[in-house]
Specification:
The complex is a heterodimer of chains A (553) and B (100).
Chain A (H helix, E strand, L loop, with lengths): L5 H22 L5 H10 L2 E3 L4 E5 L5 E2 L1 H14 L3 E4 L5 E3 L7 H10 L16 E2 L14 H11 L14 E4 L13 E7 L5 E7 L11 E8 L3 H15 L10 H8 L1 H14 L9 H10 L18 H10 E3 L5 E6 L10 E3 H14 L4 E3 L5 E7 L3 H10 L14 E2 L14 H10 L3 H7 L4 E4 L13 E8 L2 E8 L11 E2 L4 E2 L3 H15 L7 H8 L2 H16 L1
Helix pairs in contact in A: 1-2, 1-4, 3-4, 3-11, 5-9, 6-8, 7-8, 13-15, 15-17
Chain B lengths: L7 E7 L5 E4 L5 E2 L11 H11 L6 E12 L2 E4 L2 H6 L10 H5 L1
Antiparallel strand pairs in B: 1-2, 1-4, 2-3, 4-5
Classes of the chains: A alpha+beta (553), B alpha+beta (100).
């Protein structure tokens, strides 16, 4: 994987030094909070409900064992022994003290990590497919592209004060696992008629208050034109994006208000006039980056032929193991969603287990998924039993990937200062309600996504079942949306109707799932397929009729 | 119609630790809401906010929060303020752990 050059390393260390000075000046009174706040945010440090929170970038979700071990060390030394993996493939520490943060950043810099551009109106950490470099359906590894964008966007002087934050996602596969159509820019690797790889460029996607599915602005962009074209999009957005209202400042609103055709014309014009003058992506730079993502030295052992007989391992392979581009290898998804646990929270001991397994069994590679799980991308099939046994011993073998208890949840009002309601306990209670894994397998693939406010960090709009927590007259209230989809067929879910109280939302979800089990045509018809076949009405009936009847009685 | 005035306290986060804190009748800061100074009318609330805002080297983000007075002590009204007196619901961390 990519490792920092001296340039990268000097840069992050010098940023730590700068921030150390800024913290000192805040504590001695030379800087006011108003002056300090944007500086700490530029380094990923938020002040939340009960404490500070440090958001650390995991670029395109890729980590090695040493880096994961350092995260465990940070959790033990300066936090409460755990970290929270987020829907942006980042990790957040919930309890750092202000005066310790420079030391934490120093520890991160020592392993080529940082918290830069994890906040503020800049180009944020670039996200990617969590199966990148391993997926069987991949055209090309998207991470060299993501790394190129990281290098281009880091401290880019022109784009440090955009109208609003800006998120880019890249996928190398036709099966979109990176929710690219819900990003400001989504890049999907494609091939043109001549068979050359390039990008389909999507702009104006986003969730939040005004959810929108991104639109294709360019069908095929040659790889060499990437940075020039991104510059053109960003220039147009930087000049024309609204700055009068932060709720209308994202590029999705510009696309919506200007119209795709007009905006495409402006982008293409800017690209042709100005950005064409920029040099192409330097082939030597790109070659250096691509070399850093070269495939590992594959293990030459053949795949085992004997069928797996042990039931626990068999279910684990059924749910948590995905086809690798090499048949003798497998991608192992480690669920960070134990039954009743907090989605995305890993203890320092679990992080060390993951680091260890990565080093011994996955060519020293790990990925963080936007679904808040951890991936061992390159596990030889002959090692699956050993990996499973060690995961089980560490409490990391829950065989629920893609099932009802594999829930995305934002931190919600248990931590976040912006939240309007809690998310985590709702996820925990749903997980408990469907604790039985056999029953979960019978229900089949189902994505439940929970956000604790309208900003939609929990991606509720693209959940098959989405839950949005709101404050209704001083009481927590949860709205349900159905039929959302975050893949290549991105769809924004439809609201079912009035929301449910904190103690009513889990029974409501249970009624939805019971209704699905009643009306599905076969056991193979998934929740989403059933919803698409029958529409909202039968689910609305399940949600509200019992309630109405109770009220009438 | 103007909203009925509820008693208020001045609250903020500690600059160093980020912990939730409340302004006291003695002009200092406490981690315990029940020891907070309570304003019973809008003028007193304004004065309380002003007094609490004079500690830029100790606190961040001072604001007034509604409370009800129970047995002579302030108690939170809104659920967000209830959580702030306690800590997160998924782990026994934050204030609830410090009190134990």
């Amino acid at each position: 994987m990519y490792s920092y050059s001296n340039f990268d390393s000097d840069f992050v260390h010098s940023r730590v030094k700068e921030f150390r000075g800024q913290v000192e000046r805040r504590l001695d009174g030379s800087l006011t909070e108003d002056e300090f706040k944007p500086l700490r945010l530029m380094n990923g440090l938020y002040l939340q409900l009960h404490a500070y929170m440090l958001r650390v970038a995991v670029p395109y979700g890729t980590l090695n064992g040493r880096q994961m071990r350092q995260l465990a060390h940070i959790a033990d030394t300066w936090d409460k022994g755990y970290g929270h993996f987020t829907t942006r493939q980042n990790i957040q520490f919930n309890w750092p003290k202000l005066q310790d943060v420079p030391d934490i950043l120093e520890a991160l810099a020592d392993v080529g990590m940082h918290a830069i551009q994890t906040s503020g109106n800049c180009i944020r950490n670039v996200t990617s497919d969590h199966y990148a470099g391993a997926a069987a359906d991949e055209i090309e590894d998207p991470r060299p592209t993501a790394e190129l964008i990281r290098q281009w966007s880091t401290d880019h002087p022109e784009f440090a004060y955009l109208p609003r934050k800006f998120k880019v996602a890249v996928t190398g596969s036709p099966n979109d696992r990176a929710v690219t159509k819900a990003h400001d820019i989504g890049l999907r690797m494609v091939r043109n008629d001549a068979g050359e790889p390039g990008y389909e460029v999507v702009i104006g996607g986003g969730l939040g208050r005004t959810p929108m599915v991104g639109k294709v602005v360019r069908d095929f962009l040659p790889k060499a034109d990437l940075l020039a074209y991104l510059e053109a999009i960003l220039q147009v957005y930087n000049l024309s994006g609204r700055r009068d209202n932060k709720y209308k400042a994202r590029i999705k609103i510009l696309v919506h208000e200007t119209g795709l055709e007009e905006l495409r014309a402006r982008i293409e014009d800017t690209f042709a006039r100005q950005c064409r003058l920029l040099p192409d992506v330097d082939p030597a730079t790109l070659a250096r980056i691509e070399a850093a993502f070269a495939a590992p030295d594959w293990d030459s052992r053949p795949a085992p032929q004997a069928p797996v007989v042990e039931a626990g391992l068999r279910s684990f392979i059924d749910t948590n193991v995905t086809a690798h581009k090499r048949p003798e290898y497998a991608i192992v998804s480690v669920s960070i969603k134990p039954i009743g646990g907090t989605p995305g929270d890993a203890t320092s001991a679990q992080m060390r287990t993951l680091a260890d397994l990565a080093e011994r069994y996955s060519h020293d590679e790990l990925r963080i998924s936007h679904e808040q799980n951890v991936i061992l991308p390159h596990v030889h099939r002959a090692d699956l039993a050993a990996v499973y046994a060690e995961l089980r011993a560490a409490g990391l073998a829950t065989a629920n990937i893609g099932l009802v208890s594999d829930i995305i949840a934002c931190p919600g009002m248990d931590y976040c200062a912006l939240a309007t309601a809690r998310s985590i306990p709702i996820a925990q209670q749903i997980s408990e309600a469907f604790a039985d894994l056999d029953a979960q397998r019978d229900i089949g693939p189902l994505k439940i996504k929970i956000s604790g406010c309208i900003n939609a960090c929990g991606h509720h709009h693209v959940g098959h079942i989405g839950i949005l927590g709101l404050d209704r007259a001083g009481v927590e209230n949860y709205q349900i949306t159905l039929g959302g989809d975050g893949t290549e067929t991105t769809t924004i879910g439809t609201r079912t109707g009035p929301g449910f109280a904190y103690d009513e939302i889990v029974p409501a979800v249970q009624r939805l799932i019971e209704a699905y089990l009643d009306i599905r045509e076969t056991a193979e018809e998934t929740f989403l397929q059933t919803y698409r076949r029958v529409g909202l009405d039968p689910f609305k009936a399940a949600l509200y009729e019992a309630e109405d009847a109770a009220r009438a009685a | 119609m103007a909203r009925k005035f509820l008693p208020q306290v001045a609250t903020a986060n500690d600059l160093y630790e980020g912990d939730v804190i409340y302004f006291t009748p003695q002009g200092g800061w406490t981690r315990d809401l029940s020891d907070a100074a309570v304003a019973h009318d809008p003028e007193a609330a304004e004065a309380l906010l002003k007094a609490a805002s004079a500690f830029p080297l100790q606190v961040v983000g001072v604001y007034l929060a509604d409370v009800e007075v129970v047995d002579g002590r302030p108690a939170p009204v809104h659920f967000r303020e209830v959580f702030r007196t306690r800590g997160p619901s998924n782990y026994f961390h934050g204030k609830q752990a410090e009190e134990a």
